[in-house]
Specification:
By secondary structure, the chain is α+β, with helices and mostly antiparallel strands. 18% of the residues lie in helices and 25% in strands. It has 3 helices and 7 strands. Strand 3 and strand 4 (106-115) form a beta hairpin. Residues 1-18 have low confidence and may be disordered.
């Protein structure tokens, strides 16, 4: 009976209803877009001295390994809380759900959050925030962890592309106030995907 249950779980993770293949072109577009934003003085978080010499962010090689079809479980009866940031600012968030997935056969989970203020606007009403840290933090990637932007899924599966993981603005400029990755979103694996540490 236990073996059957495990098989069902694995099938749910690996062959979910919205199973899609890794889109390399889409990931490349993300890299070009973020490089373009960082090169533009109007939208760049870089300090003036760094902006003058900026050419490109340092990315891990694109990999389908870090494109996962995750199981999504919506949270119930969660309370709004103040998320800690790198400053005294405390924006209000709510845990919206939990995602379950596996990389290299290791079962992993992360919580996704919704920004209360952002959710009031039409543009961001379906926006979800995924902050995470992993074993590359402080070495190849930013010590404070990284973020991924998501949208509320229609079903019980959600696509996570770690190739689109980006650094908080605090990684480039101390003037910004950035949410600190919650302890429960620290992964005990290396996620060698997305943006690497700056410099």
């Amino acid at each position: 009976m236990k073996k059957i249950f495990i098989l069902v779980v694995l099938l749910t993770f690996n062959f979910g209803f919205c199973q899609k293949k890794f889109d390399r072109i889409d990931a490349e577009k993300f890299q070009k877009k973020i490089n373009s934003e960082y090169a533009d003085a109007k939208t760049s978080p870089l300090m003036e001295t760094d902006l003058k010499t900026f050419k490109t962010l340092d990315f891990y090689p694109l990999s389908s390994k870090y494109y996962v079809n995750a199981k999504f479980v919506k949270a119930k009866d969660e309370k709004v809380f103040e998320m800690k940031t790198s400053t005294s600012r405390k924006p209000k968030y709510i845990k919206y759900g939990t995602i379950f997935f596996s990389i290299d056969g290791i079962a992993l989970k992360l919580n996704v959050y919704q920004d209360i203020e952002l959710s009031k606007s039409d543009e961001y009403k379906d926006y979800l925030f995924l902050p995470f840290s992993d074993k590359t933090c402080g070495k190849e990637s930013y010590i404070g962890g990284r973020y991924i932007d998501l949208k509320i899924p229609k079903g019980n599966t959600i696509l996570i592309d770690f190739n689109k993981a980006y650094n908080p603005y605090c990684a480039y400029n101390h003037k910004y106030s950035c949410p600190i990755v919650p302890l429960e979103n620290d992964l005990n694996v290396e996620i060698k995907a997305g943006v690497k540490t700056f410099h």
